[in-house]
Amino acid sequence: MSRYQRPVSPTEWLYLAGQRTMPPFAIQLVVEGEGDLDPAALTRAVRVASAACPGARLARDGRTWVDTGEAPPVTAAGSVALWPALASSALERTCEVVVAEGAVMFRVSHAVMDGRGVLTWAADVFRALRGEPPLGAPAILTDFGLADRLGAPGRRPRMSAGWRSPLTAPPHAAGPATAGLGPAGQSSARQGWARRSVDGNHPGLVAKLATAVAGFTGAGRSRFLVPVDLRRHDPALRSTANLSLPVFLTAGPDETWQSLHKQILRALVERREVTGGAAERAAYRLPLGLLARSLRMAGDRHLCTAILSHLGRIDPAEFSADGFRASTVYSLPTHAPLAPLSIVATAPPGRTELTVAHHGTPERAEALLDAVEAALSPHRHWAGNDTRRAVPRATLTGLFARQVAAAPGAVALTGPFGEVSYAELDARADAVAHALRERDVGRGDVVGLLADRTVEAVAAILGVLKAGAAYLPLDPQHPDGRIGHVLRDAGAPLCLLGRRHAGRVGVEHLILEDLPTGGAPPADDAATPDDLAYVIYTSGSTGRPKGVQVEHRSLVNYVTWAREEYRVDTGTRFALFTSLAFDLTGTALLLPLLAGGSVALVPDEPTHVSLREMLERSGANALKLTPAHLDLIGRLGLTPAGFRVLVVGGEQLRPAVAAAALRAFGPHCRIVNEYGPTEATIGCVVHEFDPDRDTGAAVPIGRPVANTSVFLLNADGRFVAPGETGELHLAGEQLARGYRGRPDLDGERFVRLADGTRVYRTGDLARVVDGELEYLGRTDDQLKIRGYRIEPAEIAAALESYPGIARAVVTGRAARRGTDPVLCAYVVGAVASEQDVRDHLARCLPRYLVPAVIVTVDELPRTTNGKIDVGALPDPFAQRAVTPPSGGPAPGTVEERVSQIFARILRVDRTLIGPDTDFHALGGDSLSMIEMLAAVAAELPDPSTRDTLAGSVIRNPTPAAVTAVIRGGAPAPGGAR
């Protein structure tokens, strides 16, 4: 087999002369990531990849490049901080590889490869590292050889050397470097290079760069050299050689990027990169020494204002291997003798890396990059993000201790049990902390809590925090299997239980009612602001729930802000009636206790009776609830009085619901729409409802809270303009630490902007209108129903675990226009009965994740690209109409009135209701069940039986069963109200 060799092209001859003028005249590709590359394994991979890409093993023999057969050396730099000095040093060979902690650099003489050639070789190195065969690059064609084959369509304009530097400094060779390039968003222009990471992938990038540089220069005209990859004319050609030839752009200081983009497109259409070349061919005839002297004599006369290179979109996965996950890829440009400035761009997903080789001052290089970044990201800064505010560096237990010290006799908790003072609650919490410490539970531990809304449960939360641990609230309504899985997943060594839940967990446990209520020595605050306060599990898109870890400092930020925003003081009493495992409960529980207020505990599950009691007789004057709860209160006709504030969160709030609530609660009650995923600590964006202004489809979610920022980015990672829709990203003090034991999910959802800002990708779509954020839906199929965040994939996975179900899909459907959506499942396979499937789900999923309707289909329809076509699924309610018995129930009878109640509350046609119709099968849920119970209670002749109604009906919610309960006595006169 003959040895690989190819001619030195005229372009490469010029580069060899440039290398003598400004060594090392190298392209230096940098891959940064997480993890480390083993030098020995990298050496083997370089050997394999270089055999497939022989352009990496070249040495010059006169005017011919010859394969030496020797792979480029791999050396260790130890630290990326040493790389600028390395980048300025001479190459030992035409190619070499340098590995450092978390990074690798491919250094290549520009005389043998262009930017695309280096990427081709480096990608093959990583293929070899992954054990994949390299694609190779064996072609020997040169740039002028390919241009001649393509045929020159015309002549290139004469290249004159008279363009000024945008940095107003004479060119000089880059001096030795001693400091690092720095992380993204920081640069080291003093070294002759600068780097800046900018958010987003930008169409027309080269034109935008040219416009920014031209405007920064302030000259009458600017000229830009743009290398064009000739491989675009032959996509099958695989070569590492210099296959890039230039096109030139001219721009005035007021030129728009759109007009420059048209120049580029026109040049590409006319194939101007393959025209001419007379100057290069003439230079090729000169000896290298003479050509190098000619380049030095050019002095400060430049062929162009700047060289602008764009290496295109880059997938970091191509530059990853076992133990090393690439996060970004960028290229240090050469210092060209006839150009004062070179900018190279690469585009990893959602980011643009810009690197600059310059001959100017560091300050001017920084100023230029500032101008470029401002041009690319004009909408990054939003006035709504001016939220910086001083917050004490404290813990939840520290804040609680201040309230105990300030007013030990003040009421902390109230309810059917009476009243509990701050001092009594503190003593109970000390006793819990003491019991935990006796069992070596402390900082870094997670303690389960399975309890109802009781004094013991509140004391347990505070006691866990005093011990320095984090609490893991578990919903008693969830099945035992899920509770056990969550405890195991969180690594909880112990669980605190209410007595009625004894025997439900498989870990060590303590019964709360058996713990002392005092007598323990005061517990010192064992936690720090950076320790975990709680872990709350939410529905998981991968088929299993995920634990969100929230630290003390995040909760302290929320509580400090909310205390002022919601005007919480010693006279504030929040009613607590939602599950402790629901993160919005933190507003009703933690906020008042850390501000000197009180909490009215509602221990029983909400019914029409307990809601009336809570709103009219508990003494509460503040509520945290979902829009569905708010709507229900209005429909039940309750008349609460004395409320100061309603904090509404969990799902989209409709203006009609808010307006009705304002009428019910009175004009002095504030209604605040609070948006916030669990990953951003309870609530992080708020808007106070204004009935005169908020007349759109939904109440705005508003503006970010203290020390919180909101960024809206499009699918390419660019900041969107006001009024445009983007995915909502959250940043600031309230971001969670991450997911419990799920670094894969952390990397997917907790990401960093180009400047290093850590953000949470919510998956929610929003826009800014008149300075306020409006929620517009989701980027994925996640659902929000009755305030619960639901991942359909988790339910589908549970369905597919049922014997006989091959495939399943879950979506939200409304029974008819204007009604709330309910969970509907479609399954392929054989099932015994819908109820059997529902029973199976109830054993492994929380009640709110069990679909209201389960429909068997022959196949799941798909779109042309293979995705399930949710819109083509059949109407789940269409086949549920029933034929009433012959004659039907007579108008006005109990049976007919109950059927009408079902139809009205479920918002379905009366024909869908038969004697055995299950309330849940037509979309009924816990809240609509409360409304139904209230309506049925009006039919009971004996008011004393209304308190036992719920237990009787919930077990069998059909019209026949309800009718039987009512007929325990004579129907109430006047029928249903």
Automatic annotation (TrEMBL):
Keyword Phosphoprotein included in the entry's annotation: yes
Record-linked InterPro entries: AA_adenyl_dom, ACP-like_sf, AMP-bd_C, AMP-bd_C_sf, AMP-binding, AMP-binding_CS, AMP-dep_synth/lig_dom, ANL_N_sf
Keywords: Phosphopantetheine, Phosphoprotein
Coiled coil ranges: none
Biased composition (Low complexity): 166-185
Annotated NCBIfam families: AA-adenyl-dom
Annotated protein name in UniProt: Amino acid adenylation domain-containing protein
Annotated organism of origin: Krasilnikovia cinnamomea
Lineage: Bacteria, Bacillati, Actinomycetota, Actinomycetes, Micromonosporales
